[in-house]
Structures are given as C-alpha cells and as structure tokens.
Amino acid sequence: MRASKWTGTIIVLAGIVSVGAGCQNKVADENKQLWQQNRELQSQLTETGDKLKAAPDPAQMAAMQKDIADRDAKIADLQNQLRTPTPSAGTQTGIEGIETSFDPKAGTMTVNVPGDVLFASGQATLKDSAKATLNKVAAAIKKDYAGKKIIVDGHTDSDPISKTKEKWEDNLDLSAARARAVAQSLTSQGVSANLVKMRALADTAPRGDKAKSRRVEIVVATR
User: Fold this and answer.
1) Distance between CA 150 and CA 159 in Å, rounded?
2) Cβ neighbours of residue 211 under 8 Å, at least 6 residues apart?
C-alpha cells in the first residue's frame, strides 16, 4: 500500500489554542479575580457618587461624572467577561473553526483541522489559505512542543472515490496523501520530521456527518 511508504512529518496547535491539565483551575482563579475587581469598582463608584452630591465646584462635578462613567464602563466589561464562557479542558475552538482537545490521561493534544478548510473535494493539494493556517500551527509547535512526538491522522468520509479515481485507489489512499500534505507543510516550516509519524485512517473513524468526518487530526504528546 502506498501509505506504508510515507513516514515522518507533523503537528499540533499550541499557541493558537493553549490547553493544559490545569486549565480549569486557571479559569476559576480568573473568575475569582474578576469578581473581586467588580466589587472594588462598585464600592469606589458608590463613594464617588456620594462625593458628587456634595461637590460645590462644577469642574469637580464634571470630573467625578467622568470618573463614574469610566468605572461604569469597566464594570460592564468585567460583567461581560464573566458571562462569556471561558474555555476549559476538552474541546475548544481555534482559528478557522479548528477544534483542539486535550486528553490528560493519554497526555496528548489533538488538533482537528476540517478537510474542507485544507483541500478541495477529492484533492490532496493544500489550499493557499490552509498554508497560512498551518504555518501558525507549525510556529506554535516549535515554540511550545519542541521535542514532542507527533502523529498526523488522515480521515475521509465513506463515499467511494469516483471523480478522482485516476489519482486515488480508494479513501485510504486519499487519506494518506492528505496527511502527507499537511505533514510536509509543517516540516517545511521547521517542525522536526524525526518526531513525526503518519496514519491513513480513511473512513474508519467517522465524526457524525460527512463534512466532519473529512479531516486531518494532528496529535501531539504533551509530556
């Protein structure tokens, strides 16, 4: 099988979406800090309002009114942050709709790049827009996961090869070519090929529907 000849090359998205085992604790700490800041601002706002009522100087009143407006804006911003869910360990959203998931037991991070983001239908040549995305992934790997083992998994949907049969024997062949294309893109940006392996999985691990099933997953060891 042609796929067996292809070893070596590729990935994980670190700086783009940074997830770790201590993520949930970090979220809790951040929320606690936000609440404390909110309470402090509310207290200061009340004090400023009391001073404003007794202020005889119009200039001083204007300054205090501006202070109140500024603090109102800060409080609104803090409350908005608290209402916005903070990413936690598990599935997260990255650039271009990419999902990144962390498995603390296995000690791996998986970057799921949709096939439609990377390739045209039935093709294994990277789109120009996909190259820019993968360049960012490569930079993140080199920065945060240097020296870690990486596996690039190519996946397809279950539709048999028809329009491009002159290029691919079957879905296994296509998935291998796509994994190889992603791997070559990342290694061309300096990701160590010695640490990378590839797997062609075709349609053996579907993801709910055909669009989600077409993907390349970049799995990196985090420890």
Assistant:
1) 28
2) 114, 116, 157
Q: What is the pLDDT along the chain (223 residues), one digit of tens a residue?
A: 443 333 333 333 434 434 333 444 454 455 556 666 666 666 777 777 676 666 667 777 777 777 777 766 766 666 565 555 444 445 544 444 578 888 888 888 899 999 999 999 999 999 998 888 888 888 888 888 889 999 999 999 999 999 899 999 999 999 999 999 999 998 999 999 998 899 999 999 999 899 999 999 999 888 8
* CATH code of the domain made up of 2-20+89-221: 3.30.1330.60
Tell me the C-alpha to C-alpha distance, in Å, between residue 86 and each of 44, 104, 108, 155. Answer: 27, 19, 21, 30
Q: What is the pTM of this model?
A: 0.59
